[in-house]
Amino acid sequence: MSRVWDEQNRFQKWLEIEVFICEAYTKLSLIPEGDLKAIREKAKFDAPRIREIEKRTKHDVVAFIESVSEFVGPSSKYIHMGVTSSDILDTSFACQLNEASEILIEDLRTLMAVLKEKAFQYKETPAIGRTHGIHAEPVTFGLKITHFYDEMRRNLERMKAARERIRHGKISGAVGTYAHVPPFVEEYVCEKLGLKVTPISSQIIPRDYYAEFFATLAIIGSSIERMAMEIRNLQRTEVGEAEEFFQKGQTGSSAMPHKRNPIASENLCGLARLLHGYAMSSLENVPLWHERDISHSSVERVIGPDATIVLDYMLERVKNLYGNLMVYPEKMKTNLDISRGLYHSEAILIALVNKGLARQEAYKLTQAVAMRCYENHLDFVTELKKDEPLRQHLSASEIESTCSMEHYFHHIDTIYKRVYG
Predict the structure, then answer these.
(1) DSSP state for residue 127 in the 8-state scheme
(2) Which of 9, 146, 301, 399 has the most beta carbons within 10 angstroms of its beta carbon?
């Protein structure tokens, strides 16, 4: 990913765009064939020379053009004819974001493959589901992973859409009116670069294009944060259902030799904050003065490389995190038993309703037993069988069958088929 943003690649994109502009002018008979030939053969740049010139010009594109002109000679008078710096900057930025998008899309696909494998491995591994951090009803660990897989599938769709949004070029001149550069030039250059023509631009491509892109990166970052947060919670000593891989020789704490901390997950949660901030910066780039000011430029020079490099890193790290995840089904079973069967309360409620009780009456009967068990650490099924008001409606055998685990997982195959096909 860093190669996308290095100086050499950026200047090479600028050079390609300038040469394509000259080719388009030649097709319109506005640049002689001989001069185009000289430009094609001689056009080069020297990065150190560009930096040297920029110290004087305080303008990177002007410094670039001067460097290229030194290689080309007299025919360089046609380079950058009728166009403005943002024609080059925005069009090259679109090319770089497109290249970065391809990497991120492949990252997402690779991560999804890892998640799918884990989801099927633990498809039938029971675990307690938690709402508000409190035991709710059983799920399977595979279902937890399937949630993440399906979220990443949506993120893949978002990423593809965001790539299409930013895949626009602009060669329309100082305020976007094509006053000194015919629209054909823009069409020609964009086609050569595999970009779409921006239907209307000012001196720049409107920044909502990029805001959508960086917002998409932030959403993906939040999805990774959700995945990392789950591991952080499951790795807590009191839970202990899964943990990050801890390699031989690794150190958890400089002070406490026993520590095995979820450092990768915490790292990912922290990095997500950066992506959120970059998205906010891109939103603030949308409103600019009139046909353009320069306040967006400094921001994009930071968030373009930073956001894509950060997300590339995050996707690689979360892939390794889940690929090497240490999972403890026995601890999941132990945790299922902590509440002594209280998670069957809804099943009992529904069974009472099916016996003809009003829902509110059934709720009160079930809750009375559940709270007694909760407060006195009693076994729920045992207490249900001893409760006289409830036993008027459900027999002991009905209570036993109602409180079985099987019905919680009847439809897992349906869910998996929906998600994985």
Answers:
(1) E
(2) 146
H or E, element range at 135: strand 134-140
The confidence score (pLDDT) of residue 282 equals: 96
- Two tokens, residue 408: 């919680």
pLDDT digits over 359-385, tens only?
A: 999 999 999 999 999 999 999 999 999
352: nearest Cα among 342, 362, 365: 362
Where do the H-state alpha helices sit in 168-294?
183-193, 208-234, 263-284
For the stretch 105-145, pLDDT in tens is 999 999 999 999 999 999 999 999 999 999 999 999 999 99
344 carries an active-site annotation: no
* Amino acid identity at 359: R
In sequence order, what are the beta bridge partners of 327?
Answer: 242
Write down the catalytic residue from 59, 180, 253, 407: 253
Q: Given 132, 258, 290, 410, which residue is catalytic?
A: 132
401 is catalytic: no
3-state secondary structure of 191: helix
Tokens of 307: 């956001």
Degrees to nearest 5, angle at CA 39 with 37 and 41: 70
Domains of the chain from N-terminus onward: 2-81 (1.10.275.10), 89-170+197-335 (1.20.200.10), 342-402 (1.10.40.30)
Q: List, in sequence order, every residue forming a beta bridge with 127; answer none if it has no partner.
A: 139
